[in-house]
Amino acid sequence: MMRYVFISHANLDKPLLKPILEALLREGIPLWVDRPRETGLGDHPLLQPGIRSGADWDAEIRSGYERAVCVLFFLSCNSNNLARSDSLFREFDHGSHNDKLVIAKLDDIGRGEISGLMRIRQAVDVSGFRTEGPPALGGLVAELRRLLLHEGGASAQPSQTNQKRFGRLLPFDCDRRLQRRRFREAVEAELERDLVRPQMFFVVGEESQCADKLVEQFQAVDLPYLLQRRGLSAPVDDRLLRWPADVSSRADTDEIKDHLDDLEYELAEKLGISARSGITGIEHRLKHQNGALFLYFDVSVRKWNDGHHRLLVEWIDWWRRLNTTGRHYPIVVVGRFCHGGERIWPFGIGSPTARVLNYLMGLAKLAGDLVTIAILPQLGPVSYEDVEAWIDEHSAFAAEAPPDLRIRLRKYFTGALGMGERKVPMVQAASFLRTIIDEMKISADTSSSRSAVL
Q: How far apart, in whole angstroms, are the C-alpha atoms of residue 295 and residue 11?
């Protein structure tokens, strides 16, 4: 079978893409395009047939990108738009998750405007094609040829050993794939059961970098994907709940109950029933709801105190008591614990974020198995081998990193005397790697290369 490149693009970009795709075909790059005739490409020996007449649309697209050597995603104002199709989300996600994603930037989009799905990635700038023609595609053609000629295609999946090591390494600062993998595994495990229990996830991070974008990926990409795999086609019903902004650290039992009642009333309203329906009315509504329920609430790390902690304990217990007998769709509740853009590392010892994490880790142990709680990110001691495994797994980072990267890391983990090997808290290792990543960004910004780190 001919090895090919899957083209992922917004439909509105088809007229603009036609000359670019024609140029790639002339360079000998085999392509898979969903509807080649609509794009105006006609017949070409290197052009795959695309979606066959009468075939299942989603199944054909899925087969197209799963068999491809790589997914070539064209980043533009249209594909960066929140209204882009679910299939575009899935195509990007598949390429990213399987380390076979290439991004070509069609439009001049500022770094702050780019969706969280596309940040911290390398893109080949082809926006100059309009004025320069085929020479502007030189970098893209070279990258696609490299992937096509590579015997094994894109990077192989990491070994189980590396996955376990990476599971303890910097999921917040460096990569969100681990968190999403844990989310998928937890939801999928519940879908295997006869009784679908509520599941609760805690996401800790800066609003624009972690909490907001990660939850968007859970709700818009991962959950629909899991439902589709199970043959469940109903939509995901997502609702934002308002966590009380101000809870007194000295709140008594009655005050905590009042706040809990407010959360229950709001949930009932969001489900379209009377606010006074109580837990029995909510159980009845959930039993007859056709579709997954995705709830999320925001908590300010700076306002967190003992009162918030006690309320969260009661909120978890409320979900523990909820009877979901007869329900076949998942209920996912996500708490986003957001810190602002502090000038110092937010996970430092004694910081508000570290204090909240300690609270959440304690709650995770007390919650039992009726409510699934995941603390994101995971924090713990890491070694030089852990970091090296992460680097080996992320070849793109290793290729752009300074040549003395491993020497610097070895010195960092052996300490001032250069003897033995120590383990350090993950937050300290993250801070060190963050320094290197920032150096790489500065180097990329001052470079005359057409490649840009997004």
A: 31
